Structure formats: structure tokens, C-alpha cells
């Protein structure tokens, strides 16, 4: 009994019920305004003006209130660090919470406003940054987010290729509420954005802008009957180990961007450029952040070693190629030969696609056709999942995450 | 049968209910639910099975009449062990595990099944005291599996394949272990000397490709290993793991392996409050120190303490829920499934009833009765012990000096209502005594064996008597 | 207030027992004894002397084990209180632990197995003394063989997952015997098959390939075709899968496996709805297993012991674990002389009390009753599905509009998107109404999943009651979500904090570790 009075129950394990963890919020009040107007995005004052003229009105404040109400139900006294007015404080107040305003913006809101607000909110000590918007907003937030600070999107945008959004405002509110209560696991997720000018002229060409940390709800079911991976973070580690186990000495690997490929590099003890394609061989980085041309030069050198690209699912839409890893172009893939790809992803990521296929869009229809069918996705050491790959060109990339 | 088939186990087999339910779902017949099963796969006849004995009294009469053909160890004087042991089961143990609440629970959360979590946490904790180790799992299937898993853990932790087997292992257990570990481990058998480990030979064989040194104590022959510390030291010099397979029944008086350098201690809990059940009541334990490197390799569930929203309330949950995440080389963490939880609860109740003094008394009784049986039997002319080691509960006697086969001894004694032991060699018999075996029982065995040996030799080998005399002289 | 008593409310006012029972070590009182042990007779002491003091150096335990010291009735009371803090299947409408087949475990079978003729039987007694139990095991083997259409059966394993292990171990031995162990190193399974299929194959040294379903939720035959080949050792699949969807092309799958020389292994954990309807061997499977604790009415025992039944074709029979029971001239004998056997998978011959229970369960029902079990189970399932899909926010993804067999994997995704309430939270709240509900279905192929398996054991009124509780919880999710978030309210303990369980510095797996970490 080690000195405890008999019959006294005295558990002293740490409790986090009232731990004060601060959530920050930034709203892009005009996010999504272009969608109903059929404008494929809301970037730029001109587009916004057109949208307003077509009668669109902001959904993002409503979404924010919805999410914040979740917090208010559990923590009515919570303070939210945010920007003034439509960029946050209005929604916070509407949800019945207290807004600690640390930034005031000009009107109308621009990407610079968002970025400046993020800097101020982070400086004020927020441990999680909630934002309301789409890919453009995610990109602005990520641009000023201090390294390691997690962010989470309340979906309100038109374009959402990025994988940093909750499935709904309520779901985001739930996550934020949990975050205040106790630490949640975080995972590396991709922020992608297209050039909206290009999309409006018919080209979908999203680029990877950042890899950020996003909290998620780990399935914490106690009634565990089988030893399966409970969290995505665990899945990422195991999937990365699986990819490493397939690597051969002497072979060159073109390690594409993404959370899972980052983990591969980490396990190999290498530093990977977060957004680039890095060429690795026998445990060394041969070429960091390679451009398409540099890759082609490397691959076409005479008597070069065998080479493969290691790619993962980028963003929330299920793309393997053509979104965020454009360096791995059709020409590069052709230079890799008949078995160019090692695809690595977590089982969770595949199942999150809800039965939708993986997608390739290299811009080379013939190659895309070759790559489609079924592909063995490495999910662990000696474990693969067979999953369909489609080459839609214009399939798949239009719905929300 | 002219009446519709209504069975007590099937409330909705009543025709009116069936019709109401079909109507509610808009189906004409139950066959509609099987639309996805192609006709060629449909069985077009009733199964060829006996029954029904739907009236409970008919069923009872029938099943009882079959079971009555068994002759139990209460009707025989049994010295059988070799994996299943006849220890006393306190009435309270059976009462607790017979409760519907425990018997029919399964996989609920720590809220509605709080009692199950607490009972199993307490089982872990009670075993931990007996073994002097800080971590014990919720039981796995049996001691065979626990041992196979423990060795696999050592393989995963070290990344090596060789296992030095230092003791005599129960052959059935070895069979199970080999089948399980062979993709990942190679077993190297080091013959025992005088019933226990050959430390010098182990010392010569340990090298940095050894994943584990595997000790069994008591061994297959009941010998208690006296050199665990030395074996542990040898294993640790090369970064190998010392795995000790054991039966916890003796640790009321014997030093637990953890105090002698063992890293993983494993075995079976049948001795702790479970009936023999024709060999059908086994549960496996794995105990380790509170070191995440070990804990993270354990595939079984581990229940741990947790706080709740109410101060003073004791909560529970799964420790290291996400255990696979620590895997650097995911080579399979085996699996978790329905195993032996109820037996774990039983063993917990048993240890709580026995307490420190009960387990000490039990250990002493076992050692003394074993010693007595050894002395008594080895005093028979032509009968000898096979080794001088300390034995717990089991030992082997050798009839070669009397030129009588163990088979013939068993046959002779069975005719007298005695199961004298398990045949382990042409002239060797593995004999088991427990606290259920009285001095009178041992004396009866001894007398019966002596008579069998004597009459055998008188009948077949008149010269053997003088041979025996020479030996004892 | 006077009679008559007011009618019951629509939803039962449940509260779980709450004894606030301390951990048993806190109840210790030095000197108390729970049971006493038979002492060595004076004659024994005289003969052998003080053996303990002559033990070899270091073998004698120095300090007694720090077990609690408690009088007998105190121990009894402690454990009976803990028993009450459990929601056994005998107490609740246990349809919420889907995939577990929480059916009625008949009480008569408890009475039957309690006999000393079983409990006090040693497995190595002369076979003359154990003819009764061997008769039951042999006949149960025959019954499982008939139910599966297979040639022979082994009942040695004590759980479903270890039975799956036995399947893969026999498959491995079969390929080894054919000299193909090296070339066949892959096992194919599906994401909706029980994960133990993948896990055991992995533990047996195989590479595991998992197939995802097609867009309708059916196993994807094209995906299978894309990977099956000379390296395939076996396909290991469940049918119906945990979604409750039966793969109508299952024979095609088996034929595909056979066409490349692979074996087909069938996880029949979900067999309850197809007993007497369709059989593993008739679809061509080479090996399958059943869980007696699911399908054949043996109790779940708080998580075991269960019992597995492995059934095999004639070609795989030589590889069955040993020994096997043979019937010779009306007597049962044990045959251990089987050189191709995979050897022992468990001590002796299986969980004997469960084998007697399962035998008795089959006998009580007979052929007509067994088929009625399946039919009532699917009727119950489709009836409950109707009730559940009437609840706004609940859905049954995949094979929309199709009937299901034994269970359904539902989704609360719509409710979650609307309210932020997760399936796990709903489960915790459901316990406040005395209902089990679990979500242990990783990976979450179906988002916010829950799986209900009503079996044949629950009446229509009980299924209505279960659905009414879920409807009530869904209503709360919309109207008073904080009630759900702060659940449980009517349970033995309140919301439990998990952080300490994952931190090696803070976790407390045993009482002694807890004392050491926090009080020393």
C-alpha cells in the first residue's frame, strides 16, 4: 500500500479535463462565394465583385458559427483568438463565445489579410488554427503558419484538393472541442491549390504548396478484438516501413512529395524537401528538389542504374500523379520504364476515398491508360492493397473532400 | 411434425411473429433474403444431423448418458500431469466464473463492462505479485501460445533468428512452438545435464546471432532450473533475451525468474483454479518488466488504470492501444482475439483466495510431496530417478533396472484403478503429485509399482532380483 | 401516489450497478485467509525432512508474494460486485456487438458441463475411461463436417483467430508437401474479411494482398484477377462479409484460386445466417473454420475461452492438427501417427466444455432447427435494418436496396456531418440505456460505422426496443448533444481519460506498477 491510508481510493493519474488549450480562428469571409456563381474559385477582388453581382453570399461565417457552437456547448467560457469582424470575431460572438481579437483587417479580405491574421493569432498563443475557406485560404494560412502548429479547415471553399479539411463544420467543431480537452494526434497532410486563372480556362493543375499538421480523431474504441492499426499516424509509419522494405540496393528512387513519403525519408534518416521530388539511392540523397528536366537528365544518362518513383496519394481527391507532383511528368515516367511506380499509402487513406478510384493525370493519355487498372498499394511490410486506378482527365476532381 | 416448428431458442419462429416481421420489411418469404446466394450453391435438402431433442429433459438424459461413460480422476487414483494438473479448485472460483454476468459478457466498453476490466486488471496485478514483474497480459490461449509468442517477441526485438533451448520441453508444447515460430526463428537444442541446463554448453553457443535463451522451469520432467541467473547473464552479454517458460504454481516458495534475470516469463494458468476439463481449460500468461521495448511487442491486450471525470473513481482502458505504431519492422504483431479471459478471472479469484500464505503453503506441500514420492518410488528395487535435480510436482522414474517397461507398469496399475503416470520412454514414466495427492495415495502407488515390478520379475526374469541387489549395494 | 402503477416510459430507465469497489489489494487485512491448503502429513515431513531449507542457493523465495489477505466471503463479495458491473449477453438485447454473434448460450448446457465426469477428466487417461467425451467430440466433428460439407474436422483451437491460424498453417504445410512453399508466398484477402485472416497469414510468413470492394460493396472479382497467380498460396475470405453482403460470385473466386493452384480458405465467422442454406465445400472451398462461441451457442466468457472448428477437404485432411479421433469397431481411439500433420495447435483436444455445449446445442435444434436458426437470424437482421434505416442520419452503405444476410454494417456519417457526434460517442451513450454497441471496425471502410447482428435469439419486441434506443440517441445528437458528449451517465464509471494509457512513464498495467510509479 506504500503509505496510503487503507480503504482510501486515491488515483492520481494526470487529468486534462480543464487544461486550457487555446484555439485560433480565421475566416475568409468571401470563401466559396465564387462557387454558386459557377466561377471555380473566389480568388481576387475582380472575381469577388463578379460573384457579388451574381447574387452570391458568404457561407463561411455560417459554417464558422456552426463549428464554434460545438465548442460553446462544452466550453461556454472558451476564448477564441481571432481577427476582428467578419474574419472571426463576429462568428465567435454569434456562437456565444468570447473573441480575443488580435488583428483587424481592411475590407474586403484578401489573402494577405488572412496571412497577417494567422501570424498574429499564432503569436497570441493559439495551439490550433481553425480556418474557414477553401484551398486558397488553406494556402494563405499555411504560408504564415509557424512550423509545427496544427491547422484544420472548416470546409467552405469551392476548390478543395487539399487534405486539411474536416468533413463538415460540425465535425471540425467536434475536433476543436476535443482539442481543447486533450491533445489529439496530428498527421502530415497536403495543401494544394490550383492557379484559378488556369482552371477557369480549362486546365486543372494544382500544385503542392505545403505539408501541414492536421489533428484527427483517433478511433479510441476500447473493445479491441483484432490487432489492426487504430490511427492514421500508425498507418503512415507502417506503410513507410513497407515501402522501405521493397527498396533494392543500387536502385534510384524518385521520392515524391506527401506525408507518407516524408515518413519514408525520416525512417531512412534522410532530410526530404517537403514539396519536392528528391532522388535517393542507397541511403543518400542524390538530388534534392529535382525539377522535371533534372530528373530527365538523370534518367537518360547512359548505363544509369534502375529507377522507380515512389508516390503517395496527394490531397483529398485520390490523385497519384498530376496533382502536386508535376515534376514526375509523363516524360519522366516513360523514362522509368515498364514498372515506374511504387505507390505507398495507408489503408485508412484508401478507405477514406469511399470506393472512389485512385487517379492519374499526367497529361499523356496513352501513359495514363497504361497506368490505370489495378495497382498494388504498399500499406505495410509485406502488405499491399489492390486498388483501382482511373485516368479520368476530367473525372473526380470537382466534388468536396 | 404437424405443428409449425417453434423452438424455445427462437422466439420469432412463432408463425404470427414471422409473418408480421416479413410484412414489416416487405418480403414475401425468408428466401428473398438469400437472393444473393446462387441456386447452385443452395443446399436442396435438410442437413443430415441428429436431433432435435428440443425438450430439455430429453436432451439432458441423452447428453448425461454419454458423459456418464467417462471415468473421472475422482474414480481413479491419478498421477497424470504433462500439461494438465489436478489441483484443488476452491468453490468460490467456480461460483464467480459461473455467474452469467462474466460467463456471457464479451467485448463491451470499460463502462458497461467495468467489472470485467477490473477483474482482469486484478488478475494481471495478482499474477504480477506472484511473478515479481510489473506487466502481465490478459490471458492468451494457453501456455503453448504464450511461449511461442514470447520467443517471437525476442526475435522481433533483437532482429535475430537463433533460439537456444536450454531445457527439456513438453513435446506437445514444442510442437506448437515450432509450428508457430518457424518462419522467423531457428531452434537450437542444447541437451540438458542432470535434468537441467548445461550452462557450459550454452556459454559456448551464445553469440550475437542469438535472439533468446529459452529455459523451462519446472521442465518437462518437473526439474527446477537452478541456473537461471547464470543463463540470464550469458544471454545478456550478447544482447539476447532470457525467456523463461514456467508454471506459476510454485512461486509461493520458489524465487520468481524475474529475480534471477529473466526478461520474459510465460506459461499456463491452468494450475491456478481451473479444473482439468479433459485438457480444455488453459490460458497463457506473458509477463515482462515495465519497459516499453517489451510492452510494445506484446500482442495481447493489457488493461490499465485510468482516471474518470469523478475523483476517486477507478477507470480502466487498454494500455498502449496503438501498440503496432512502435513497430520499426512491421513483421506481424500476431493477433488479438477471443482467448481465455474467463480463465484469467478464475486465476485471479484463486490467487486472491490463496493469499501470500496459501501460495507459500501450496508450494511447500508440492515440494514435500514430490520429494516424498521420489524417495518412496526410488527405494523400490530396480526403480530409479533419472536425475538429482530439485523437482516440483513432476519427476521421471526409470524401470530399466528392473527390466520392466513403463507400458507394462501402466497396464498393470490401470487394472487396479491407478493411472500411474505418463509414458515418456520405454522404461520411463512421468509421475505427477499435487496437493490433492495424499501420503496414502503415494504409498498406494509405491506398493502397486513394487508389486508389479516384483511379480513381473518373478514371472519373466528370475535373475533380475539379484541384479537389483547388486545395483543397490 | 396510489395504485395503479403508471405505465412504463417508452425507453427503459436503466442504471448499471455501481459498487465503487476498490482494487482488491486495498481490501487486504493481514492475517485473514481465503482458503487453506492441505498440509503435508507428518509422515511425509519425517521422511523428507526440511526440504525447503536445503533448496539450492537462490531458489528459495525471500519475501512472500504481496497478494491480498482476505477472508473467503470478502473475496466472494468483491467478485460478485464486479460481476454485477458487467452487461452480459444474458442481460441485454445484445445485438450491438455485431460480428460477434451474441446469441443465447442455453443454460441447460452449463448444467451438463458442470459434471465431475467432465471437469475431473484428465486428457491422458486411458481411452477406455474417456469414451464418453470422445464420442461427443467425434459426433460434433461429424456435425460440423456435414454443416460445412467438408471431409474432416478438428476442434482443437480455443478461439476464432487461432482457428484461422490453423487454416493458414495447414495451407502452408500443403504447399510444402507439394514442393511449392518457396514459390507461393502470397495470400489474398479482402478488406471486409476479419483482419485476423491477414494477421495470421502475415505471422505465417506470407505477403498479404488486400482487395477493396467494387463500387457496390461486393468483392471485386476483377481486382482478384489482377493479382492472383502462381505466387498465390491461398485466398482467405469471409462470406457473407462483415457488411452482411454475400458474395454471389464466390464460386468463381474459388475456381480462380484453384485455376492457379492456390487453395481457398473460408472464414465462417459469419456463418450463422447460412447454416443449412449453403455450404463451404459446395462452393469449392478447401478449408474453413467456424467459431463455436459465435455460431454454436457457447458462451463468450468475457473474451474466451471460445472454440474453433477447422473443417477441411480430403486433400487437406492429412495436415490436420493431431491427434485425431478415429472410430474403430465402435470404440474411439486417438491417432497421433500422422506424419504430415501440422502438429499441436493447442494443448490436447480443445476446450472440452465448449465442445459439449456446442454438441448439445446442435442436438437440441436438429436439422430443421439449425436451418430455422439461419432463417430467423436473417429475418431478424432485415427487420432490424428496416427499423434502423427509419432513423434519420443512419444509413447502410453499399448494395443499397439489397437484402443482407446475418448482420449489417451501418453508418452514422450523415448524423456526424450534421451534429459532430461520432459513432463511438453514440455507443457510449447507448450503454446508458443498457445496450451494447461497438465500433471496433478498423479500418473504417464505412465511415462512422456500427454493426448490428441480431442473431436468432432476440424477439421482435426486443429488436424494436433496440432500434428505439438508437433513435432516441440520434434525437439527442441533434437536440442535446452535450448529453451524449458527457456520457456515460448511468454507468458504473464516468467518462474515462485515456492519455495515461499510452504513455510508458504514466501507464499502470498492474497495481504494483501503479504503486511504484505514483507512491514511491
Account of the 3D structure:
The complex is a heterotrimer of chains A (401), B (473) and C (520). Mean pLDDT of chain A is 81; it is low at 1-19, 219-229 and 394-401. Chain A is built from 13 helices and 16 strands. By secondary structure, chain A is α/β, with parallel strands linked by helices. The termini of chain B are far apart. Chain B has a 7-stranded mixed sheet with strand order 2-8-7-6-5-3-4, with helices on both faces. Chain B has a 4-stranded antiparallel sheet with strand order 11-12-15-14, with helices on one face. In chain C, the strands form 3 sheets. Chain C has a 7-stranded mixed sheet, with helices on both faces. In chain C, strand 4 (232-238), helix 9 and strand 5 form a beta-alpha-beta unit. In chain C, helix 3 (107-113) runs antiparallel to helix 11 (352-389) and helix 5 packs parallel to helix 11 (352-389). The interface between B and C is large, with 202 and 210 residues. Strand 16 (383-390) of chain A pairs parallel with strand 3 of chain C, so a sheet runs across the interface.
Approximate helicity band of chain A: 25-40%
Morphology call of chain A: elongated
The helix/strand order of chain A is: EHHEHEHEHEHEHEHEHEEHEEHEHEHEE
Q: Determine and state the CATH class of the largest domain in chain B.
A: Alpha Beta
Radius of gyration of chain A: 23 Å
Order of helices and strands of chain B: HHEHHHEHEHEHEHEEEHEEHEEHEEEHH
Characterize the main sheet of chain B.
7 strands, mixed
| Portion of residues within helices of chain B | 25-40%
Tell me the overall shape of chain B.
Answer: globular
Number of domains of chain B: 2
Counted beta strands of chain A: 16
Q: Helical element count of chain B?
A: 14
CATH architecture of the largest domain in chain B: 3-Layer(aba) Sandwich
| Secondary structure tally, helices of chain A | 13
**Average pLDDT taken over every residue of chain B:** 93
Largest interface: B-C, 202 and 210 residues
Query: What's the N-to-C terminus distance of chain B?
Result: 80 Å
